[in-house]
Amino acid sequence: MNICVFCSAADLDARYTTPAREFAELIGKAGHTLVWGGSDTGLMKVMAEGVQEHGGRLVGVSVEFLAEKARRNADEMVITKDLAERKAQLLARADAVVVMVGGTGTLDEATEILELKKHGLHIKPVVLLNTAGFYDGLRRQFQRMEDEGFLPRPLEELVFFADDGVAAMAYLESV
After folding, report:
1. What is the pLDDT of residues 92-127, one digit of tens each?
2. What pTM was estimated for this model as a whole?
3. Which residues, other chains included, contact 24 with Cβ-Cβ below 8 Å and sequence gap of 6+?
């Protein structure tokens, strides 16, 4: 399975890096491919290293203005002209999407993927990996959107919230 992971390129503390390493190990040991933003920094690097160390493949999709930060030993690296093309390439190469902790870029990616799914433009499973309760507030906001009629589909059809990598992987392998 090609698992697209959206996550931060920032250097983060162990409450985020340890669960990321554990999830990367699950991806690699299962023989899956990590499709990710291609960066060799921060949490993106943690994921790439963990997947490679445990036998998985790496498909990176970077963007021209970040190309100097791209991981050099990925199995495949695509450089796009802009962020919109990058997101389209990431989704096109993925069988499933997992959103991990991140900043505004990760949030942008997550909401675009969910908007496309809401409109039936893809049917790929989407998981929000809620490490250390990072997405609790977003979950409440999504629930409010559903409760107040802003979502034309039930929230559970759009996204699965997982508290850890084991739950995320179990969900992905069940759909």
Report:
1. 999 999 999 999 999 999 999 999 999 999 999 999
2. 0.94
3. 34, 46, 47, 48, 49, 50, 51, 53, 54, 56
